[in-house]
Q: What sequence folds into this?
């Protein structure tokens, strides 16, 4: 019988690799939704454009809060909360970039 190439602690939904994949996937999906909302806003006109320019940073901001919630839940469960904190910081920084990128569109009308 050949030895198992993966130790028991590297398997399952709570392993470090699985948590990293989930956090990265979450961050990419949230950022993708934010970018898609911004692209649709730039292709629109009138009141729809204004609303979507406001919604784009809000999507990333709410996603950052969701990542912070995952961080808290992992911390309480004594899991790998650090990867979720990294995703939170990435999304919070992206939120600030989105906010400053959309500000000129709101000011110019």
A:
């Amino acid at each position: 019988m050949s030895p198992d190439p993966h130790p028991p602690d590297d398997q399952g939904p709570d392993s470090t690799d699985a948590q990293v994949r989930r956090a990265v996937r979450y961050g990419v999906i949230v950022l993708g939704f934010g970018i898609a909302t911004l692209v649709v806003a730039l292709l629109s006109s009138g009141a729809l454009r204004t609303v979507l320019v406001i919604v784009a940073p809000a999507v990333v901001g709410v996603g950052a809060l969701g990542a912070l919630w995952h961080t808290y839940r992992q911390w309480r469960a004594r899991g790998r909360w650090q990867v979720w904190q990294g995703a939170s910081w990435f999304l919070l920084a992206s939120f600030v970039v989105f906010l400053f990128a959309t500000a000129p569109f709101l000011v110019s009308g």
Notes: The two ends are 70 Å apart (CA to CA).
